[in-house]
Design brief:
Length: about 425
């Protein structure tokens, strides 16, 4: 640990982004304090400020590998908490669980394994302390808490950049993809005779209504089922209508589980109007002593399951930046934001390309989108019959490989041969 005696940091937010950031900072800073406005329950239940925590989540392989590296024993702790092991054709066993269970488990490991980290709940930060162009701490209930570095992991609606704009630091430019996605989630008992799969994903043609279903196993022998649609009223709350919505998907698996299930929970809804990326890497002037990370930089369409892994990879990038510049350096914000942008570029483009296939969704133009989209569409179809193409496509989607690895000569031959021998059906 390259800890400098006497240095301190404050992390705002105890979600996964905040916990990963605290873990990274614990290698470089003497005292790390995590401040969370919610009460942090002992049970694995959703928190008020994380409404999306109720819905189905998938942790990508890149995020899981990084978390396993930071938190020894994580897989065993999750299994003990009821998480379900999911074999994957990527060389590892992943776990499926609710987001609250993942956060609670990581929080416990963080506090046990990193003695220089503390977490305070029911602690709402009122604002930043700014002196001579530098953030020097935060204010909570009129009390000033000083720190060498403050990192806001407070979500897409973070207000701290707006506060800094009032002190002369410009707000970053923002890119938005207007997805207008509406989700509805219920939880049902998981039966031994349910379909022989670890999870189910059903997506219809984006040009023909664009409905999505996701069903993942979770602790307590449960299925978490999330149905979603774009630019309409979304999945209905009535159980019968909800099942009918699931029946409209191109695969019957989710609807069949709903039809056989007993004691389903009420449908919980969530709506996100836009995917949003703050281009903090383009800022010409940023205050020393302050960073934003996670959804505060980029909040993805939740159906692409990229947010948690992106946050973990951003935290890793922060560690690299601190190793080079130090936690108190005025050069740290710019260096980190440039690294974070490289982390975000791939999942942002993957998600934006997928979303913009729906003609009702609008967003920024992506260079080369039409040509790349046509090829990637063929690659996805080729993955139905070609194991090498399927494995490489999964590695790209899990942020373990760059998209360029799908454009090698060998891959192009496999993809194009499949397109000729197995023409795509709707």
């Amino acid at each position: 640990m390259g800890v400098r005696a006497g240095t301190s940091a404050i992390v705002i937010g105890a979600g996964l982004a905040g916990l990963a950031t605290a873990r990274v900072l614990s290698d470089h800073v003497d005292d790390v304090r995590v401040l969370e406005r919610d009460r942090l329950p002992l049970e694995a239940v959703p928190r008020p400020s994380v409404p999306q925590g109720r819905h189905a989540h998938v942790l990508l392989a890149s995020g899981q590998r990084q978390l396993d590296d930071w938190f020894p024993g994580l897989a065993d702790e999750l299994t003990a908490g009821g998480a379900v092991s999911v074999p994957a054709d990527l060389g590892f066993i992943s776990s499926s669980m609710s987001q609250p269970l993942l956060e609670r488990t990581i929080r416990g490991l963080l506090l046990r394994q990193r003695p220089n980290v503390s977490v305070s709940d029911e602690t709402a930060v009122d604002g930043l302390l700014v002196e001579d162009g530098r953030v020097v701490g935060v204010e909570v209930d009129g009390v000033r808490h000083r720190a060498d570095l403050v990192v806001a992991c407070s979500g897409r609606h973070t207000r701290f950049l707006d506060q800094l704009a009032g002190t002369g630091f410009p707000a970053p430019p923002v890119s938005e993809v207007r997805i207008d996605v509406a989700c509805g989630t219920c939880v049902v008992p998981r039966q031994p005779d349910d379909f022989a799969g670890a999870l189910a994903v059903a997506v219809d043609d984006p040009a023909l209504g664009h409905r999505v279903g996701l069903m993942v196993p979770a602790e307590g022998d449960r299925w978490i089922i999330t149905l979603a649609s774009f630019h309409d009223d979304g999945p209905p709350a009535d159980p019968a209508a909800y099942e009918d919505f699931a029946r409209s998907l191109p695969l019957p698996l989710i609807a069949d589980v709903l039809a056989q299930a007993e004691a389903a929970t009420p449908v919980m809804t969530y709506r996100m109007p836009t995917s949003q990326r703050r281009h903090v890497e383009r800022l010409k002037q940023t205050p020393a002593g302050f960073l934003v990370l996670g959804d505060a930089i980029c909040s993805f369409n939740p159906l692409h399951a990229q947010g948690m892994s992106s946050a973990a990879l951003q935290a890793r990038a922060l560690g690299h930046a601190i190793s080079r510049h130090g936690s108190a350096s005025p050069r740290l914000p710019g260096a980190f934001y440039r690294r974070a942008a490289r982390v975000i570029d791939l999942p942002w483009r993957i998600a934006a390309r997928a979303d913009l296939a729906d003609p009702r969704i609008s967003g920024p133009d992506l260079v080369g989108t039409d040509l790349v989209d046509r090829y990637l569409d063929k690659a996805l179809w080729a993955g139905h019959t070609s194991v090498p193409v399927a494995r490489r496509t999964m590695q790209v989607q899990h942020l373990l490989a760059r998209p360029e690895t799908l454009i090698t000569p060998a891959m192009i031959v496999r993809v194009l041969l499949t397109a000729v021998t197995r023409p795509r059906r709707r």
